[in-house]
């Protein structure tokens, strides 16, 4: 760059430099590289059937991660979404086992999940416990509750032939040839995206997460906004729980916990798509797909299940490191406030 | 070694010499072939409008940014500074305008942070605290409990702690970027005394300030930057019209008068009552404070650190818990939301934390309070309406760049502040609480902000102005309330108020028994105000 370049003319947008954009393209590039590598390595990878199957398996993670995106955007974190998922699956499966009609089972499942969100909201917004610790506690408690309710953690298995179709559809049905879980994930992700980035609620939630003091001074309902994020995340996780119970015709204790860390990883991979580290639904979905394709490709390539954690960890590190290293080279003129991932900062006084 | 106000002889080699410094951010060239020299024992002023490149130059000196080209010599040798740690190793200490204090440390920990003498485990905490209290009092005349968390201090106190920390480190060069912005007059006097002590010991100080009158008191030669290049140097002791000359170099044209906007006296509606404050009490800060602000007037409030004015704006706007009653237009204010609903506007002192949304666009900043106006059914934000709302305010306040999509964190301080004000103008707020509204804001933006405030008040709005800038206070306020130790000690009308008189009252003059107890607070320090 030469010194004779343009002056800082008001009203003119400076042309973006490659160095400014590259750090934000790392995650999509990694996704593309994974697709490329596996489609060369395994011939069945890039077939429509396989990709649809991958999406079907990923739908639950996608749902959980979409909810997590909302919580992280609000300046918090939710380690207890697995509990919301599990309790919803437990309640729905138990209701079906007790021969309630399908819609009752679904509503009861969602209600159990939402209850977890309300507890989180109460602990974090009313009692002002930092989100990390509050949701960690709820996770501990919720795990124990599941074991107590199932008589020591015994799975509930439903007899397939006796499960009404109205319930089985949630995890196994198709809409225009697309598995229902995929339809649900796409719909929910779309709505959450629109809500976060197109509505007043999303705008106020984002401002509250990034600069709570400014939000409060502007007259926003800071507490209600934060609470809405936890309730929404739990509700979406509960939906995922219903889908999971339906798909597997069972409730298996603590299966929701598998998704929590993947969801957090996907959300923060997605954050690298933003100049300011702001999490978003599209970014999160890139992260979700990276994890999903990695797992599927390794399966097809015949690698043991045990390698998958390693691969996921390395993918996460790769994206974050490259993003950070490249971003460091261009000097940021904006010093954003510290990203609040663990605490809802409370104004003193 | 030169004496206080002398310009150092051209013969002596400079301690610091920056030459041919270039720096660009993206396509924007911020510094072009800048040279800057500092000699031992001088106080070198560095001035320029916002965006002129002062802060960038200093950030290059401290290794926060790297220059694209150019050389830095320090103590006669060429040096490469790639991090703040490099700079500190050389003995270059900087107090940045945007303070970076670690909020969870105590004052004492902050004071000795990262210094070998202050290793915990070797020094008892009680000893450490005792030493910190003594060091703070000695270096900057600040008296606070050393075991308070830095978060619990006011902005001014944090600033003084940071200066004390730099002084205690035994600097070879001290750089102060807009150090007096949050400080009240007596603290400024104390700061100047500190600077003169350093100067007497041969330690040069680079002093960056928008307050040109201060430079005249403390500095010998001033380097002026304009649009990222050297505009010239002025010896302040040399000519009577030296300050006019500096302003001329800063703005690049002749300025008719260097004066604060001053409008004719207003006649507020004597029966009207916009804000009513009854027996307001904030423990440790304010005691039983009562006053009213009527529609069509600006009430100014000032006081030194510890006078309670720092807490006043937060309390009145519902952002700080308090005893007593606050009402706005007859409606009680118990929360920030109630304040805003009652058509209140609050421009807070900490602009980058609580004012501007630094990661959002100008458009998103301006619409924040007025989202009602641009929200369609289902809560969807109508972008086009939002943009139009923003554009109206951008031209009204002359925000630059005039691009609704520009990210606010990248604007100059003055334009950020205009954006914050624009947010409330867009919401058509009728009552303004302004806390240090022009701190770190350049001369041009300042005049524009004053003009808009005057427009609003002339149109029937009311304003509570909390400021340590006495000229601003005298220029803008119709009535002035002076606070001392949590209470109102004087009310002055426009015309009776002079900066000298306000300063005397704020320092406790006229308070029985205070003179004996004042210690080093600087009540008796002579201060010059234009």
TrEMBL record, chain A:
Domain of life: Bacteria
Keywords: Cell inner membrane, Cell membrane, Membrane, Transmembrane, Transmembrane helix, Transport
Pfam families linked: BPD_transp_2
InterPro entries named among the record's database cross-references: ABC_transp_permease
Keyword Membrane found: yes
Subcellular location: Cell membrane
A GO molecular-function annotation: transmembrane transporter activity
Gene Ontology, cellular component aspect: plasma membrane
Transmembrane segments: 21-41, 53-72, 79-97, 103-126, 138-158, 178-196, 222-244, 250-273, 309-327
Membrane topology note: Multi-pass membrane protein
Entry protein name: ABC transporter permease
Source organism (scientific name): Arthrobacter mobilis
TrEMBL record, chain B:
GO MF annotations in UniProt: ATP binding; ATP hydrolysis activity
The UniProt record lists the keyword Transport: yes
Pfam families the UniProt entry points to: ABC_tran
Residues in ABC transporter domain copies: 16-252, 265-510
Keywords from the UniProt entry: ATP-binding, Nucleotide-binding, Repeat, Transport
InterPro entries assigned to the protein according to its UniProt record, in alphabetical order: AAA+_ATPase (IPR003593), ABC_carbohydrate_import_ATPase (IPR050107), ABC_transporter-like_ATP-bd (IPR003439), P-loop_NTPase (IPR027417)
Methyltransferase as UniProt keyword: no
Gene3D superfamilies noted in UniProt: P-loop containing nucleotide triphosphate hydrolases
Entry protein name: Sugar ABC transporter ATP-binding protein
